[in-house]
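Supplementary notes for students who missed Thursday's class. We covered one full example, reproduced here. Read the sequence, then the structure, then the short commentary at the end.
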Amino acid sequence: MAATFLDSVAGRIRQIAAIVTSTGAPDADKLVSTGPDGRIDETVLPVGIGADIAEIEMSENLAASDLVNVWNDGGTAKVRKADATAAGKEADGFVLDAGTSGNPAMVYFEGRITGLSGLTPGARYYLDTTAGALTATPPSASNNVVQYIGRAISATELAFEADEGVILA
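Structure (token representation):
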């Protein structure tokens, strides 16, 4: 149930329901409430404020929390699992929700990757040679890419701060 507030409307006290998400202009001048997670939904924020995200078609199935690579498929941007086996598939971002090939994915280019497990808080993590995954041990084989992905802030969350990566000799 949405939060409610009291307001004076034409000299009378009236109960007003707050919105948690916005559809744009039709929701002008409405009160905003936090959602069940205690946060303000990005749809109520001004354009340009909020997560750096893009909706991009998946060229393969993706799991929640996968690291992803944006690539050019004949002039169309598509997203696939990133991996450190060779240059060109470095992590550009991540997804929070699973999806199937051919459908759009919400790709995050900054922020926190949630839904992980077994991370060591404070530890540095790198792109793994297993597609979509990260590892605490940087890859070491010839032609692998060592790409710093971010630092664990808890056992289940990582602050995404990917760098360009280095191709090993």
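Commentary. The CA atoms of residues 6 and 15 lie 5 Å apart. The chain is about 0% helix and 35% strand. If anything here is unclear, bring it to office hours.
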